[in-house]
C-alpha cells in the first residue's frame, strides 16, 4: 500500500486546496497551479472518472487509467482558517476566486449511474445543521448527530472526543468552543460508523462525502486569530483531519481521494435547500422519461472490450474472406468448378 507522503511538514495557507490522500492511479502533480473555487466540483468528478461539461485545463491532475476509479471521494471545506499545518499530504495548490460551491452535480451523477447499488452520498455542514443523504447513507448514518443540540449531547456521552483531545485554552462551556468541538466529534463519528459498516467500502459503487466546517471561523470572530483558543483549535483540527484522512483512506482499501479546502472567507453567501433524512428517497422516479443516463456498473468495461475486439476480429475476417473470393481463380482454387470442368470435358 504505497501512499505518497512528504517527510517534512507542509503548511497549507488560506484559500488552498490540499490533497491529503490519493491512490497511485489518481495522479496529482506538485506545483503552484492555482485552481478556481468554482472548478472544485469538476475536479472531484474527474478524480472519480466522471465526465464534465467543460474541460478542466488545469495541469495539477494528470489523466489516469481508464478502468480504475477510486472507491470514494471525501472533500472537507474548512472556513475561517489562515494557515493549517498538515504534516503529510500529497500536494497543495492555491485556490483563487473562493466562491461557494456544492457537489450536487457529482451526487446526481453518482445517483443516476449507480441507482441500483445505492451508493453512499453524504453532504453535511454541522454549524448550519445542513444534511443531505442518498443511498445507503440513510441507514448507515441514521444515528449521526445532526443538530447542534444532538452533537452537544453526544459530547457528554461515552466515547466523546473530549476525553482524548488536549483542549488547553478551549472551554467546554463557551458556545464557539463547543461548536468547534462538535465538528471534531462529527468527524470522529463518521469514521466510527464506517468502521462498523466496512461492507460499504467493498461494493461496486463509489461513495461521496462533502463536509463543511466553520468552527474555526467562529473562534476567529470571537477571540481573534492571535488568541490561544484559535491556535489550539487550529492544531487540533490539523491533527484530526490528518487522522481522518488516513482512516478513511485505509477503510476504502487505499482507494479513496481525500481533499481539504481551506478558505478564510467566501466571496458570496451560499443559499441552499436542505433535506432531512426522512425526505430523501432511494430512487425519486425510476420511470421518468428525462433520466436518459444508462445504468452503469463495473462490468461495463469488460463487456465493452469483449464486444469491441470481437467486432474488430469479425470485420477483419470478412475483409480477408472478401479479398480472397475476389481474387479467386475458379478453375484452380475451387473444387466445385474443377469437378464441373472435368465433367464438361468428359461429355
Automatic annotation (TrEMBL):
Membrane topology qualifier: Single-pass type I membrane protein
The Gene Ontology biological process annotation of the record reads:
positive regulation of Wnt signaling pathway
A cellular component term from Gene Ontology for this protein is:
dendritic spine membrane
Ranges for domain Renin receptor-like C-terminal transmembrane spanning segment come to 272-347
Q: Name one GO molecular function term.
A: signaling receptor activity
Q: Where in the cell is it found?
A: Cell projection, Dendritic spine membrane; Cytoplasmic vesicle, Autophagosome membrane; Cytoplasmic vesicle, Clathrin-coated vesicle membrane; Cytoplasmic vesicle, Secretory vesicle, Synaptic vesicle membrane
Keyword Transmembrane on entry: yes
Q: Which domain of life is it from?
A: Eukaryota
- List the transmembrane segments: 300-326
Renin receptor N-terminal domain residues are 15-264
Listed A to Z, the keywords are: Cell membrane, Cleavage on pair of basic residues, Endoplasmic reticulum, Membrane, Receptor, Signal, Transmembrane, Transmembrane helix
PANTHER family given in the database record: RENIN RECEPTOR (PTHR13351)
How does the record describe its quaternary structure?
A: Interacts with renin. Accessory component of the multisubunit proton-transporting vacuolar (V)-ATPase protein pump. Interacts (via N-terminus) with ATP6AP1 (via N-terminus). Interacts with ATP6V0D1; ATP6V0D1 is a V-ATPase complex subunit and the interaction promotes V-ATPase complex assembly. Interacts with TMEM9; TMEM9 is a V-ATPase assembly regulator and the interaction induces the interaction with ATP6V0D1. Interacts with VMA21 (via N-terminus); VMA21 is a V-ATPase accessory component.
Q: What does this protein do?
A: Multifunctional protein which functions as a renin, prorenin cellular receptor and is involved in the assembly of the lysosomal proton-transporting V-type ATPase (V-ATPase) and the acidification of the endo-lysosomal system. May mediate renin-dependent cellular responses by activating ERK1 and ERK2. By increasing the catalytic efficiency of renin in AGT/angiotensinogen conversion to angiotensin I, may also play a role in the renin-angiotensin system (RAS).
Which protein is depicted? Renin receptor
Lineage, opening ranks = Eukaryota, Metazoa, Chordata, Craniata, Vertebrata
